[in-house]
Write a structure and sequence with these properties.
The complex is a heterodimer of chains A (263) and B (294). Chain A is mostly helical and 263 residues long. Chain A is built from 9 helices and 2 strands; from the N terminus they run ααααααββααα. Helices cover 59% and strands 2% of the residues of chain A. The termini of chain A are far apart. Classes of the chains: A mainly alpha (263), B mainly beta (294).
């Protein structure tokens, strides 16, 4: 038996017992002994490796947001993330130890909602004389004469941006839009952050910069939201608002991290 | 019988003790300089995370080594440097929370091979990179970022720091809340600049087939192109104005029909030359200014 025959036997037999012929060759061949030793070492090392690690949920959320942004999936994120989830998020963000983890999660969730918002730019027309709000969404077919937001879920309608004048008595109540939810959650997180001591006296310059930029973002967000209240179809303003939300989520995460690093 | 203590002797001992104490405190608070050399074989990856304040300066050299020079307050700031293969990890962090602001500082000077990948992060203080080729991610809270003759896929993220990019090539991404961006004499094929309240200045050529996107929420977006450029321009603003000072060189766009143009308070679509590159400028409430360089 030659060395290459021995390697073939090893490849075909695996870790099973060697034939007499192979054992005879192995006994007199130092090269094949070394080769077998290497194989044994690799197998032993492979057995010590941990099993496959499950990625955290935020990875899936980010992935989902990306796929939705690229138009590869169209299922709205709202079906997976109901309002109770948002309500509970504030509770989970309260403990200091979870603050940073919460911020990371918040980033992912905000991305999902903002992506969803930008893809389902709704036009809200609340006629003052008629009794039904009409909403047309770009992602799903609009039901004739009906109210559609997503292809599957019927939606309650919130009249937050309704036209001035006496409110029609039968106007449906709009559910808070995803961007409103994102805004609310960001504001709640901001309260938690403002209660934290940030970088401390040692990095007062950083602390001041972070707070000043948060103020800048808040002003800009308020301006965009006010404008969108009057012009909900303005895609450019919505784009800037979404960017500002993302920047605020990033900034709050950085502020939490800054506070955490000092403790 | 107790020994007699000479008051004059006692005073001199106290004085000496005080001087010793003061000098030891001064030594502990004095900046300490360190220089370390790391030999590398191929294109190195240098990762520097500065948790405290300080300046980071990176320059290239012909030597196949990374030289890390740091100046930090002894016993206040911990500087750690580790090499694994061609990767150099550097970190500076505060050793206590009771230090004075000026004590929590670490300045770095790095000398790297020309082909080096960089990941630099600092709080305040300038990040300066010169004549380095390789992908780089540079992050700062309040510090500015100055790049000169760098090339690669460049990502700059700041909170309030500004970017000045001179003679850069490759791909550039800049994201900031209040920082400004100045891109001067570039040879960039892909540019994406976004700042919420800062200003943007792009002064240079648009490379054919390049894509250039510049957005500022409230600031000024100013573009100065050359007569030899060839690009399609799409400029739009919600509440600001488009100040077109190059009307003579900008033909009305004939490539596409922009049905959404009328939605915006001010917008401008046009073509310079053959319209090979794509330039998108936008602003929420700031001014967009388009100029031709002399």
């Amino acid at each position: 038996m030659q060395c290459k025959d021995f390697e073939s036997v090893l490849a075909s037999e695996g870790s099973g017992p060697l034939s007499a012929e192979a054992r005879e060759h192995l006994g007199g061949c130092s090269r094949c002994q070394d080769f077998l030793s290497d194989i044994d070492s690799i197998v032993a090392a492979a057995r010590t490796l941990s099993s496959e690690v499950t990625p955290p949920d935020r990875v899936w959320l980010s992935l989902r947001a990306q796929l939705e942004a690229e138009g590869l999936i169209k299922e709205p994120a709202e079906t997976a993330l109901g309002p109770s989830w948002w309500e509970n998020l504030g509770f989970f963000l309260k403990p200091r130890s979870l603050a940073t983890a919460g911020a990371a999660l918040l980033l992912a969730v905000t991305a999902v909602f903002l992506t969803h918002t930008s893809r389902t730019t709704n036009t809200v027309n609340v006629p003052t004389e008629t009794s039904t709000a009409k909403i047309t969404g770009t992602t799903g077919p609009s039901a004739p004469g009906g109210v559609t937001n997503s292809p599957s879920a019927p939606v309650d309608v919130t009249a937050k941006n309704s036209a001035p004048g006496p409110a029609p008595s039968r106007v449906k109540v709009l559910k808070p839009s995803p961007s409103e939810n994102a805004s609310t959650t960001l504001s709640e997180t901001e309260v938690d952050v403002s209660n934290m001591r940030l970088a401390g006296a040692g990095n007062a310059q950083v602390d001041a910069s972070l707070r000043q930029n948060l103020h800048t973002l808040n002003e800009f967000i308020a301006e965009c939201e006010q404008h969108l209240g009057k012009h909900p179809e303005d895609e450019l303003a919505r784009e800037y608002l979404n960017i500002a939300y993302q920047q605020k989520a990033d900034l709050l995460a950085a502020m939490m991290e800054s506070g955490r690093s000092e403790h | 019988m107790q020994p007699m203590i000479n008051p004059r002797h006692s005073l001199s001992v106290w004085t000496a003790g005080l001087i010793l104490f003061a000098s030891s405190t001064a030594i502990a608070g004095a900046p300490q300089h360190q220089e370390r050399h790391f030999a590398v074989k191929n294109r190195p990856v240098v990762v520097l995370q500065n948790i405290v304040n300080g300046r980071i300066e990176v320059k290239s050299s012909k030597n196949p080594e990374v030289v890390v020079s740091s100046t930090a307050t002894a016993e206040k700031v911990a500087v750690e440097v580790e090499q694994v293969g061609d990767r150099i990890d550097i970190s500076a962090s505060a050793m206590g929370s009771t230090s004075e602001p000026q004590e929590l500082q670490a300045d770095f000077q790095l000398s790297v091979p020309e082909q080096t990948e960089l990941q630099l992060k600092t709080q305040t203080g300038l990040i300066y990179v010169e004549q380095v080729t390789g992908d780089m991610k540079l992050e700062s809270v309040a510090g500015d970022v100055h790049l000169k003759e760098v090339s690669g896929y460049i990502i700059v993220k700041t909170t309030g720091g500004s970017l000045v990019c001179t003679l850069c090539s490759g791909k550039l991404e800049f994201m900031s809340i209040s920082g400004n961006a100045q891109v001067l004499q570039p040879a960039l094929t892909n540019v994406n600049l976004m700042t919420t309240s800062g200003n943007i200045l792009y002064d240079g050529d648009f490379i054919r087939t390049g894509i250039y996107t510049m957005k500022s929420g409230r600031g000024l977006v100013e573009v100065r192109f050359s007569g030899n450029d060839s690009f399609d321009l799409n400029a739009r603003t919600n509440l600001g104005t488009v100040d077109n000072q190059a009307a003579a060189f900008l033909k009305p766009d004939t490539h596409t029909h922009h049905s959404t143009a009328s939605r915006y308070a001010h917008s401008l679509f046009g073509t310079v030359g053959q319209g090979l590159a794509k330039v998108e400028l936008s602003s929420y409430s700031g001014t967009i200014r388009i100029l031709k360089r002399n």
